[in-house]
Amino acid sequence: MMKNKNLAGLLAAATLVLVLSGCAAVSKVSTGDALVGDRMALKLDTSWNQFERGLGNDTPTWTVEGVTIDALQFYVGIKDGQPIAKLPDAAKNQKPLNFKSSMQAADVVALYQAMLTRDGSSFELVKLEPAEFLGGKGFRFEYALNRKVDDVPMRGLAYGTVQKGELFVIHYSAPRLVFFPRYQARVETLARGAKLKS
């Protein structure tokens, strides 16, 4: 039974890779300066692979190992009333998860939790704390997630802030045992050095 479940997870992941390769161009983001969403300026000390249209929801997405393993996503300048991400075609019947400029950090975390568990995955908030982000007051959260499609235990972290009524978030997730600790420091450095383009 366990072998069948693991096989189903691997097939689902392989299918996702094939779908993504057919609908999203991949390019290299080299070291140095990078600009995401025309507004978030980053300094990179290592290169990343970038999916031009994200994971089917137009969210800018970078990866080192491949998007079914690790994903770094950027939510840039989401305005009051806008969804945090475009719904994929398969989920058009679901209610969009809209950001409200009055949301506190815990409300934003709840919004991301709802997004990450739409497929039945289980989410546990590990930590939520104030943090400087994009040159102002923000927040940082960590979570554990059991990914339903393949039963892989994941870890994630995000830095976020609401500035002038707009939401900005850098979100990273990867399998808990190997890949998350391997790239966590790189993501933390990237997020702490991010700036808003004036």
UniProtKB/TrEMBL annotation:
Signal peptide interval: 1-24
Top-rank lineage group of the source organism: Bacteria
Keywords: Signal
Name of the molecule in the record: Lipoprotein
Organism from which the protein derives: Roseateles albus
